[in-house]
Amino acid sequence: MKLAWLAAYLTGLVWSASNPHDYFTWFLEALPALVGLAVLAATHKRFPLTRLSYTLILIHCLILFIGAHYSYAQVDTFKFVREFFGWQRNNYDKLGHFAQGFVPAIIAREILIRNAVVNGRGWLNLFVISICLAFSALYELFEWGVAVATGDSAESFLGTQGYMWDTQSDMAMALAGAILSLAILSRLHDKQLSRIPRAD
Fold it and tell me: pTM of the predicted model, to two decimals?
């Protein structure tokens, strides 16, 4: 499992870094996946995650690698999707922001449950959704900071494509992802968590 996961990650990373749209945008878009690998490497012995969490993290990393390679506004597959649905913009970035809620929801849920941070499923879900929204807002602030610091060179990274509500819709997609993740994956996640002892 670990070797297959790492092989898939490294394959995606090498492909993504090979002749991307531009290396500045590539670095900014791939950075969360690079940081994620470092965090997993540092914590996998002390706090190994469930198979579900590792799988979702890998999928999210691959989504990031694709966006980093092409830039989110230029992902080839979503050019076809855009034309098929008659959209005015390439919406691959919305898939990325949906994943930004869908994947962290399970990670946050796992950390909160295993460390017995909250009591009751209602409070658990509230905390998970709040964490995902906070993470999404933090990323939007990061995008804003990069744009202010670098000017026009951050245009591909921002990927607004002229849509004035891009920031708000990004956070709405993350919210939708978090809610859907909790709705469809909580039962499976509970089964996998039952095999891992809680932290003292």
Answer: 0.86
